[in-house]
Write a structure and sequence with these properties.
Number of helices: 2
Structural class: alpha/beta
Radius of gyration: 17 Å
Strand content: 25-35%
Order of helices and strands: EHEEEEHEEE
Oligomer: single chain
Strand order of the largest sheet: 1-4-3-2
Length: 145
C-alpha cells in the first residue's frame, strides 16, 4: 500500500481489501433515491431477490459498484436489528470520493440544503459536508478538483 499512514505486509492474505457498501434504512425510498441520483449523479437499479424495488434500491458508483443500499423499514434482512430514524448512532459520517466540486455544491444550494465546506491544503482536498434526506452525514471529498 502506498499510504504514508499505514504499512501492510502484502504477504497477508486474510484481510479487508475494500469497503463494499453501506446500507441505510430510509423513510421514503423514492425521495432518498432521487437525492443520490440528482445531487451526486449516482445511478440506481433494482436489487436482487428477495428484495424488490418496493423494498430496496441499490445505488451504483461510476465503476458500476453498488456502494449504497437503500432499504425500506420492511425490507427483508439477513441480520435484523432495531432501527430508529434520525441520528445515525455511533456512525458519524460516510465519505464519498467525488468529482465536480462546483457543480455538486450548486446542486446542494439549488435544493436549499444546509452544508459546510472545508479545505485541507496539505493533501489537496476540498470537502462538502451535507445530510441526506434521512439525516446521514455525507462527507464529499474532492481531491485536486
Amino acid at each position: 500500500m502506498n499510504s504514508p499512514f499505514m504499512a501492510f505486509d502484502t504477504r497477508v492474505r486474510a484481510r479487508v481489501v475494500a469497503l463494499d457498501h453501506f446500507n441505510v434504512v430510509v423513510a421514503d425510498l423514492d425521495r432518498s433515491e432521487a437525492f443520490y441520483r440528482e445531487v451526486l449523479s449516482l445511478e440506481s437499479c433494482a436489487p436482487p431477490l428477495p428484495l424488490t424495488r418496493e423494498t430496496a434500491r441499490w445505488i451504483y458508483d461510476g465503476s458500476e459498484r453498488p456502494i449504497l443500499h437503500l432499504n425500506s423499514h420492511d425490507a427483508p434482512r439477513a441480520m435484523d436489528r432495531d432501527m430508529h430514524g434520525g441520528p445515525t448512532g455511533a456512525l458519524h459520517h460516510i465519505a464519498l470520493r467525488c468529482e465536480g466540486f462546483e457543480e455538486i455544491r450548486d446542486r446542494i444550494e439549488d435544493r436549499g440544503l444546509r452544508y459546510e465546506s472545508n479545505v485541507i491544503h496539505a493533501i489537496g482536498l476540498r470537502q462538502i459536508f451535507v445530510h441526506d434526506p434521512d439525516g446521514v452525514l455525507l462527507e464529499l471529498n474532492f481531491f485536486d478538483d
